[in-house]
Amino acid sequence: MKKPLFVSLALAGLSGLSVAHATVITENFINNPAQDGWRTSGNTNLFQWNSTNQNLEVTWDSSQPNSYFYHPLGTILAKDDDFSLAFDIQISDAIATGFFELAVGFLNFENATNSNFARGTGNDSANLAEFNYFPDTGWGPTLSSTMTDTNSIFDFLEDFVGLDSGVTYHVILTHPAGAVFFDGQVFINGQLYSALPVSYPSTNFTDFRLDTIAVSSYTATNDPWGDSLLAHGTVANFVVTVPPPPVQNLIGSFSNAAWRVQFLSRSNWLYTLQRTTNLISWNDVSITGGNGTNLFLSDVNAPVDKSFYRIRANRP
Question: Which of 130, 195, 251, 314 is the most buried (most CB within 10 A)?
Answer without folding.
Answer: 130
